[in-house]
Amino acid sequence: MTTAFYVPPASRHGERIVLPDDEARHAVGVLRKRAGDEVIVIDGEGGWHRVRLDQVGDERAAGTVLETRREVGEPAYVMSMGVGLIKSRNRFETFVEKAVELGVREIVPLHTARTEREGVKEERTRNVMVAAMKQCGRSRLPSLTTPRALPEAITHVEAFDAVLVAHEQVDPTQSVRAALADAPDAARVRVLIGPEGGFTDDEVAMITEAGGTAVSLGPRRLRTETAGIAAAVAVQEALTSSRSPHSL
Ligand code: SAM
Predict the structure, then answer these.
(1) CA 170–ligand 1 middle distance (angstroms)
(2) pLDDT digit string (tens) for 207-235?
(3) 78-240 belongs to which homologous superfamily?
(4) What are the residue ranges in the chain where pLDDT is below 50?
(5) Residue 196 belongs to what H/E stretch?
(6) Do residues 30 and 61 touch, judged by C-beta distance below 8 A?
Protein backbone atom coordinates (compact mmCIF):
# COMPACT_ATOMS: atom_id res chain seq x y z
CA MET A 1 0.00 0.00 0.00
CA THR A 2 1.13 3.55 -0.74
CA THR A 3 2.46 5.51 2.20
CA ALA A 4 0.53 8.75 2.58
CA PHE A 5 2.07 12.18 3.06
CA TYR A 6 1.02 14.19 6.08
CA VAL A 7 0.01 17.72 5.19
CA PRO A 8 -1.84 19.62 7.94
CA PRO A 9 -4.83 21.71 6.74
CA ALA A 10 -2.80 24.96 6.97
CA SER A 11 -0.75 23.83 3.96
CA ARG A 12 -3.84 23.46 1.81
CA HIS A 13 -4.92 26.52 -0.14
CA GLY A 14 -8.16 25.71 -1.94
CA GLU A 15 -7.25 22.89 -4.29
CA ARG A 16 -3.50 23.56 -3.96
CA ILE A 17 -1.44 21.49 -1.56
CA VAL A 18 2.16 22.27 -0.65
CA LEU A 19 4.00 19.46 1.11
CA PRO A 20 5.88 20.57 4.25
CA ASP A 21 9.69 20.51 3.83
CA ASP A 22 10.30 17.13 5.46
CA GLU A 23 7.51 15.47 3.47
CA ALA A 24 8.75 17.11 0.24
CA ARG A 25 12.28 15.84 0.90
CA HIS A 26 10.91 12.34 1.45
CA ALA A 27 8.70 12.48 -1.64
CA VAL A 28 11.38 13.84 -3.96
CA GLY A 29 14.69 12.68 -2.44
CA VAL A 30 13.69 9.21 -1.26
CA LEU A 31 10.63 8.16 -3.23
CA ARG A 32 11.71 9.96 -6.43
CA LYS A 33 8.30 11.50 -7.04
CA ARG A 34 8.12 13.66 -10.15
CA ALA A 35 5.71 16.18 -11.65
CA GLY A 36 2.71 14.26 -12.94
CA ASP A 37 2.83 11.60 -10.19
CA GLU A 38 -0.23 11.04 -8.02
CA VAL A 39 0.21 10.84 -4.26
CA ILE A 40 -2.09 10.37 -1.28
CA VAL A 41 -2.15 13.21 1.22
CA ILE A 42 -3.80 13.07 4.65
CA ASP A 43 -4.38 16.10 6.86
CA GLY A 44 -4.57 14.36 10.26
CA GLU A 45 -8.09 15.73 10.77
CA GLY A 46 -10.00 13.19 8.71
CA GLY A 47 -9.18 14.65 5.28
CA TRP A 48 -7.82 12.28 2.61
CA HIS A 49 -6.80 13.65 -0.80
CA ARG A 50 -5.58 12.21 -4.05
CA VAL A 51 -3.17 14.80 -5.39
CA ARG A 52 -1.32 15.23 -8.68
CA LEU A 53 2.10 16.78 -8.18
CA ASP A 54 2.90 19.53 -10.66
CA GLN A 55 5.71 21.51 -9.02
CA VAL A 56 8.59 19.36 -7.91
CA GLY A 57 12.00 20.74 -6.99
CA ASP A 58 14.90 19.56 -4.84
CA GLU A 59 13.09 20.26 -1.62
CA ARG A 60 9.70 21.30 -2.83
CA ALA A 61 6.62 19.42 -3.89
CA ALA A 62 3.20 20.88 -4.60
CA GLY A 63 0.17 19.74 -6.49
CA THR A 64 -3.55 19.92 -7.08
CA VAL A 65 -6.29 17.94 -5.36
CA LEU A 66 -8.02 15.49 -7.71
CA GLU A 67 -10.29 13.81 -5.17
CA THR A 68 -11.17 14.31 -1.51
CA ARG A 69 -12.70 11.84 0.92
CA ARG A 70 -13.44 12.08 4.63
CA GLU A 71 -12.59 9.76 7.50
CA VAL A 72 -10.73 7.21 5.41
CA GLY A 73 -9.43 4.44 7.67
CA GLU A 74 -11.26 5.79 10.72
CA PRO A 75 -13.50 3.70 12.95
CA ALA A 76 -17.14 4.70 13.42
CA TYR A 77 -16.48 5.21 17.15
CA VAL A 78 -13.99 7.18 19.24
CA MET A 79 -11.76 5.09 21.48
CA SER A 80 -9.88 6.96 24.17
CA MET A 81 -7.25 4.98 26.01
CA GLY A 82 -5.85 5.94 29.38
CA VAL A 83 -2.61 4.07 30.06
CA GLY A 84 -0.53 4.06 33.22
CA LEU A 85 2.91 5.52 32.56
CA ILE A 86 5.44 2.72 32.36
CA LYS A 87 9.19 2.81 33.00
CA SER A 88 10.31 1.71 29.56
CA ARG A 89 10.00 4.44 26.94
CA ASN A 90 10.41 1.86 24.19
CA ARG A 91 7.52 -0.21 25.45
CA PHE A 92 5.34 2.87 25.73
CA GLU A 93 6.19 3.86 22.18
CA THR A 94 5.42 0.34 20.98
CA PHE A 95 2.01 0.69 22.56
CA VAL A 96 1.50 4.11 20.95
CA GLU A 97 2.41 2.86 17.49
CA LYS A 98 0.06 -0.11 17.71
CA ALA A 99 -2.73 1.95 19.26
CA VAL A 100 -2.63 4.32 16.28
CA GLU A 101 -2.77 1.38 13.89
CA LEU A 102 -5.73 -0.04 15.80
CA GLY A 103 -7.80 3.12 15.51
CA VAL A 104 -7.37 4.62 18.98
CA ARG A 105 -8.31 8.30 18.76
CA GLU A 106 -6.91 9.61 22.03
CA ILE A 107 -4.07 8.47 24.28
CA VAL A 108 -4.10 9.70 27.86
CA PRO A 109 -0.95 8.88 29.86
CA LEU A 110 -2.01 8.26 33.45
CA HIS A 111 -0.41 8.92 36.81
CA THR A 112 -1.66 6.23 39.16
CA ALA A 113 -0.65 5.01 42.61
CA ARG A 114 1.94 2.69 41.09
CA THR A 115 3.35 4.65 38.15
CA GLU A 116 7.09 5.17 38.24
CA ARG A 117 7.59 7.69 35.45
CA GLU A 118 6.61 11.35 35.35
CA GLY A 119 5.87 11.97 31.70
CA VAL A 120 6.47 11.16 28.04
CA LYS A 121 8.77 12.72 25.45
CA GLU A 122 6.06 14.57 23.59
CA GLU A 123 7.76 15.32 20.30
CA ARG A 124 9.27 11.87 19.99
CA THR A 125 5.95 10.20 20.78
CA ARG A 126 4.14 12.44 18.33
CA ASN A 127 6.61 11.45 15.61
CA VAL A 128 5.81 7.80 16.30
CA MET A 129 2.11 8.62 15.96
CA VAL A 130 2.55 10.50 12.69
CA ALA A 131 4.61 7.68 11.17
CA ALA A 132 2.02 5.08 12.24
CA MET A 133 -0.87 7.16 10.88
CA LYS A 134 0.83 7.54 7.51
CA GLN A 135 1.78 3.89 7.29
CA CYS A 136 -1.54 2.34 8.28
CA GLY A 137 -3.90 4.32 6.10
CA ARG A 138 -5.76 6.41 8.65
CA SER A 139 -6.64 10.02 8.06
CA ARG A 140 -6.73 11.26 11.65
CA LEU A 141 -3.76 11.90 13.89
CA PRO A 142 -4.84 10.76 17.36
CA SER A 143 -4.29 13.17 20.20
CA LEU A 144 -1.79 12.63 22.98
CA THR A 145 -2.87 14.49 26.09
CA THR A 146 -0.60 15.66 28.86
CA PRO A 147 -0.36 13.10 31.67
CA ARG A 148 -3.39 13.13 33.97
CA ALA A 149 -4.02 11.80 37.43
CA LEU A 150 -6.40 8.82 37.38
CA PRO A 151 -9.28 10.66 39.13
CA GLU A 152 -9.20 13.26 36.36
CA ALA A 153 -9.63 10.54 33.75
CA ILE A 154 -12.90 9.46 35.31
CA THR A 155 -14.49 12.78 36.19
CA HIS A 156 -16.57 12.96 33.02
CA VAL A 157 -17.60 9.35 32.53
CA GLU A 158 -20.95 10.58 31.22
CA ALA A 159 -19.08 11.83 28.14
CA PHE A 160 -18.54 8.18 27.21
CA ASP A 161 -21.01 5.44 26.32
CA ALA A 162 -18.77 3.01 28.16
CA VAL A 163 -15.73 3.25 30.44
CA LEU A 164 -13.84 -0.02 30.82
CA VAL A 165 -11.04 -0.74 33.25
CA ALA A 166 -8.84 -3.70 32.40
CA HIS A 167 -8.07 -5.65 35.54
CA GLU A 168 -6.28 -8.97 35.66
CA GLN A 169 -8.22 -10.13 38.70
CA VAL A 170 -11.54 -10.10 36.86
CA ASP A 171 -13.06 -13.40 35.73
CA PRO A 172 -12.09 -14.03 32.06
CA THR A 173 -15.77 -14.40 31.13
CA GLN A 174 -16.17 -10.66 31.81
CA SER A 175 -14.70 -9.78 28.45
CA VAL A 176 -14.71 -6.51 26.54
CA ARG A 177 -17.22 -8.04 24.14
CA ALA A 178 -19.53 -8.93 27.05
CA ALA A 179 -19.18 -5.45 28.55
CA LEU A 180 -20.07 -3.81 25.23
CA ALA A 181 -22.85 -6.25 24.32
CA ASP A 182 -25.51 -3.75 25.36
CA ALA A 183 -23.79 -0.88 23.58
CA PRO A 184 -23.10 -2.10 20.03
CA ASP A 185 -23.65 1.44 18.74
CA ALA A 186 -21.38 3.09 21.30
CA ALA A 187 -19.87 6.25 19.85
CA ARG A 188 -17.32 6.98 22.57
CA VAL A 189 -15.49 4.43 24.69
CA ARG A 190 -12.73 4.97 27.23
CA VAL A 191 -10.45 2.11 28.24
CA LEU A 192 -8.14 2.30 31.24
CA ILE A 193 -4.98 0.19 31.51
CA GLY A 194 -2.76 0.05 34.58
CA PRO A 195 1.03 0.52 34.80
CA GLU A 196 3.53 -2.34 35.45
CA GLY A 197 2.36 -2.75 39.04
CA GLY A 198 -1.31 -2.67 38.02
CA PHE A 199 -4.14 -0.64 39.52
CA THR A 200 -4.66 -0.85 43.28
CA ASP A 201 -7.95 -2.33 44.51
CA ASP A 202 -8.93 1.18 45.64
CA GLU A 203 -8.35 2.54 42.15
CA VAL A 204 -10.45 -0.19 40.54
CA ALA A 205 -13.19 0.48 43.10
CA MET A 206 -13.00 4.23 42.38
CA ILE A 207 -13.40 3.60 38.64
CA THR A 208 -16.31 1.18 38.99
CA GLU A 209 -18.05 3.47 41.52
CA ALA A 210 -17.75 6.25 38.95
CA GLY A 211 -19.60 4.07 36.43
CA GLY A 212 -16.79 2.07 34.84
CA THR A 213 -16.91 -1.68 34.16
CA ALA A 214 -14.01 -3.95 35.07
CA VAL A 215 -13.07 -6.29 32.21
CA SER A 216 -10.70 -9.16 31.64
CA LEU A 217 -8.32 -9.48 28.71
CA GLY A 218 -7.94 -13.20 29.20
CA PRO A 219 -6.49 -15.65 31.71
CA ARG A 220 -2.86 -14.48 31.54
CA ARG A 221 -1.19 -11.40 33.02
CA LEU A 222 -0.23 -9.10 30.14
CA ARG A 223 2.35 -6.36 30.17
CA THR A 224 0.84 -2.89 30.08
CA GLU A 225 1.59 -2.31 26.39
CA THR A 226 0.25 -5.76 25.45
CA ALA A 227 -2.88 -5.13 27.49
CA GLY A 228 -3.44 -1.81 25.68
CA ILE A 229 -3.09 -3.48 22.30
CA ALA A 230 -5.33 -6.41 23.29
CA ALA A 231 -7.99 -4.00 24.59
CA ALA A 232 -7.91 -1.94 21.39
CA VAL A 233 -8.42 -5.10 19.32
CA ALA A 234 -11.23 -6.27 21.60
CA VAL A 235 -13.06 -2.93 21.35
CA GLN A 236 -12.60 -2.96 17.59
CA GLU A 237 -14.02 -6.48 17.38
CA ALA A 238 -16.96 -5.64 19.63
CA LEU A 239 -17.90 -2.40 17.89
CA THR A 240 -17.20 -3.03 14.23
CA SER A 241 -18.94 -6.36 13.78
CA SER A 242 -22.28 -4.60 13.40
CA ARG A 243 -21.07 -1.46 11.59
CA SER A 244 -18.94 -0.78 8.58
CA PRO A 245 -15.82 1.29 9.22
CA HIS A 246 -14.59 3.94 6.76
CA SER A 247 -12.34 1.62 4.82
CA LEU A 248 -9.36 2.45 2.65
N1 SAM B 1 -0.62 -6.06 39.06
C2 SAM B 1 -0.07 -7.05 38.22
C3 SAM B 1 1.09 -7.73 38.91
O4 SAM B 1 2.16 -7.12 39.03
O5 SAM B 1 0.89 -8.87 39.22
C6 SAM B 1 0.31 -6.69 36.80
C7 SAM B 1 -0.33 -5.52 36.14
S8 SAM B 1 -0.29 -5.65 34.38
C9 SAM B 1 1.38 -5.82 34.07
C10 SAM B 1 -0.63 -4.01 33.85
C11 SAM B 1 -2.05 -3.74 33.49
O12 SAM B 1 -2.42 -4.47 32.34
C13 SAM B 1 -3.09 -4.07 34.51
O14 SAM B 1 -3.25 -3.05 35.48
C15 SAM B 1 -4.34 -4.22 33.66
O16 SAM B 1 -4.91 -2.96 33.39
C17 SAM B 1 -3.80 -4.80 32.40
N18 SAM B 1 -3.88 -6.27 32.33
C19 SAM B 1 -2.86 -7.15 32.22
N20 SAM B 1 -3.32 -8.40 32.09
C21 SAM B 1 -4.66 -8.31 32.11
C22 SAM B 1 -5.71 -9.28 31.98
N23 SAM B 1 -5.47 -10.57 31.82
N24 SAM B 1 -6.98 -8.83 32.02
C25 SAM B 1 -7.24 -7.53 32.20
N26 SAM B 1 -6.31 -6.57 32.30
C27 SAM B 1 -5.02 -6.97 32.25
Answers:
(1) 10
(2) 999 999 999 999 999 999 999 999 999 99
(3) SPOUT methyltransferase, trefoil knot domain (3.40.1280.10)
(4) none
(5) none
(6) no
For ligand 1, the distance from its centroid to the CA atom of residue 214, given in whole angstroms, is 12
Q: How far apart are CA 73 and CA 58, in angstroms?
A: 31
What is the reported pLDDT for 119?
87
Helix and strand numbers, DSSP H then E, in the chain: 7, 13
Ligand 1 atom nearest the C-alpha of 192 is 16
pLDDT at 1: 54
Separation of CA 81 and ligand 1 centre (Å):
15
C-alpha–C-alpha distance, residues 188 and 76, integer Å: 9
Query: pTM of the entire structure?
Result: 0.93
Say which CATH topology domain 4-70 has: Ribosomal Protein L25; Chain P (2.40.240)
